[in-house]
Amino acid sequence: MRARAPASSANLGPGLDVLAVALDLYVEVELEPAERLSVESEGEGSELPADASHLAARVAAAVLGHDRVAIRVRSEVPVARGLGSSAALAVATAAAAGAGDPLAVAARLEGHADNAAASYAGGLVAVNALEGGWRTSRLALDPGLEFVALVPDRLLETAHARAILPPQVPRADAIFNLGRLAMLLEGLGDRDRLVPAAAGDRLHQPPRVQLFPEAPRLLEALERAGARAACWSGAGPTLLGICDAGEAERIAQAGLAALGDAGVKGRSLVLHADAVGLVVGEHARLPVRATGADPGNAAGRTPGNAAGRTPGNAAGSTPGGVPGHTLGHTLGR
Fold this sequence. Notes:
Layout: E1 2-10, E2 19-33, E3 38-43, H1 55-64, E4 69-75, H2 85-96, H3 102-110, H4 113-121, E5 124-130, E6 133-139, E7 145-152, H5 158-163, H6 171-189, H7 205-208, H8 215-225, E8 229-232, E9 239-244, H9 248-261, E10 266-271, E11 279-280, E12 325-329
Helix pairs in contact: 1-2, 1-3, 2-3, 2-4, 3-4, 8-9
């Protein structure tokens, strides 16, 4: 069985552990019965150990009750960069293994329900833990929005980024985030209402600056270039600019220049929201890109087409947007 799930950007501004949006980079997982466990990986994350410690192997074994399976993973999602690569892998693997509730499996084994909810449902989502499991709320997202992701060439493990967060927060900070969350949701639903202040946060972004000191400067550069709002993506180090459609290419170029000015090696990606989420079956292959190259491999390449991207879900919905593309690398990459 084959399944595909999109990347995601979570913790959006004030939305720590609650708010996430699915983005059009993908993880494809294929499972087949075998005499013993084997794991093959292609693309992002292919350097990870191909043994029982691999997340896909652990998820498959948890769903199947054994590890006699051949697993093939193809991924476009940068690892440990704040784009939900592990959650997408867990959701796709659980679905390919036949899990009745891939979201619950992914949230339990990978640990980030907000990312997993976006990869499972697509679009803009909020997730809440209830007694009966996870409740995913699909929220309005203006189709005229695009996203610019500044992806530094440095790892930032989520466990480390979470460990530096304070165990308690002042009431004033909690109130600040609740108010900004309302502003952000209004603006994501209607981009004309989206303002930079909506991405304000006092709970997770300020403490994490010590892990990525250049972040405030880069976020300001995105806003100066025209992003309606900018924030950390997940626990970082990727930074996300939320932009008007048609402006993202120019803003991404400015973001790429800002990375270079800050002395940070990295990529600048133009991405779109994925409105489909999890796809299972023959249509779950990675999308065909216009150049035949994976995102992040070619500078200045044009967006991929939608060939071969007909969805395999029961709702028969159509994919949201065209695949993301990379503007290039900086500092000799």
